[in-house]
Amino acid sequence: MTRKLLALVAAGLLATTAVVPAAHAQTLKIATLSPDGSGWMTKMRAGATEIKTRTEGRVELKFYTGGSMGTDRAVLNKIKIGQLHGGALTGGSLADAARDLQVYSLPLKFRSFDEVDYVRSRMDATLSKQLEEGGFVNFGFAEGGFAYAMSKNVPVSSVAALRKQRVWIPDNDHQSEVGMKVFQVSPVPLSLADVLPSLQTGIIDTVASSPIGAVALQWHTQVKYLTDLPLSYFIGTMAIDKKTFAKLAPADQAVVREVMTRVFRDIDAQNRKDNVSAYNALMKQGIKPVKPNAVEIAEWEKNGEMATAQMIKDGIVSAAAAQQLNGLIAAARAGKK
User: Fold this and answer.
1) Which fold, 2-333?
2) Are strands 232-241 and 136-137 parallel, antiparallel or unpaired?
3) What are the tens digits of pLDDT across the range 232-253?
C-alpha cells in the first residue's frame, strides 16, 4: 500500500509539473500587412522562434500576414475586442494611443537620411514611451522611408502641378486630409488594396510612397515619374496590447523585449538598404526623376510649413513635439553633435 501511495503521489506530481507550462503558455496573435517572404516577416519569424525556444514554449507569436486581418484600423479594432493581441503597424495608425508618432511624417521636414538619423536618435525613446503610456508595448521603430510623389501621366515638379492631379491618400487618414487641404489639392481617399486598380483605370494618377512600398505593391508598374523631393518620412512598429503582455511572466516579458527590440533594430537598418536599392531599381526601370528647382522647392516647403501649423492647431501633433523636431533638424543642418 505504501509503494502504491508513493507511486500515486509521484504520478500526481509529474502530472502537475506537466500542466504548469501549458497553463501559463500564451500565444500572441499579431497581424501585419507584410506578406510572407518579405524581409520584415523573415526577421520577425526568426525572432518568434528564438522567443519560443528561450521561454520553453511559454510564449508563441502567431502571425497573420499579407493584410489577412484587414487594414491597420481593422487590426486595432480587433485588438480592442481581444481577437488579436497586436500588430505590425504604421506609426500614424497608432495616433489615438500616441499622437506624436505622426511628428516624423509632417510634410517636407527632412531633406536627408543624415537628418533622420540625428533626430531619431534623440526622439525615438520619447515616442516609444508615449506609446507605452497609451497602452501598447513596443520594441522601437523600423524605418518605412521617405515618401515621394509618383505620377502616371505628367511630371510633377511644383505644387501648382500637383493641384492638377488626381492624388491618392489613405482612407481615414486625417493628417493627409489636412495636408492636402492646405496644399489646395482635392485628394481621392482609397484603401491600399484599391490603389493599384485605381491607377490602372485612371481614378487616380498620383501616389506618394516609399520606393520599397511602390515595388512591393506593384504601383511602380503604373507610374512614369518620381518627384525627387522627400514629402514625408514614416515609421512602423510592432505594438502589443499592454494588458495582454502583462499576463506573461516577468522573465518572459524580458525575453520578448530583448529579442524583438533587436529584431526591429535589424529591420530598421535593412529597410534603409532596401529603400535605396528600390529607388535605384526604379530609375533603372525607366521611371524618370523630376528635380524641382529652387523656387519650386521653396513653394513646396512653404506649403509644408502651413500644413504643419494647421496640424498643430487641429491637435494632430503636439506643438512641443513639432518644436523639438524643428530644433533638432536645425541642429543637424548646423552640424551640431
Assistant:
1) D-Maltodextrin-Binding Protein; domain 2 (3.40.190)
2) antiparallel
3) 999 999 999 999 999 999 999 9
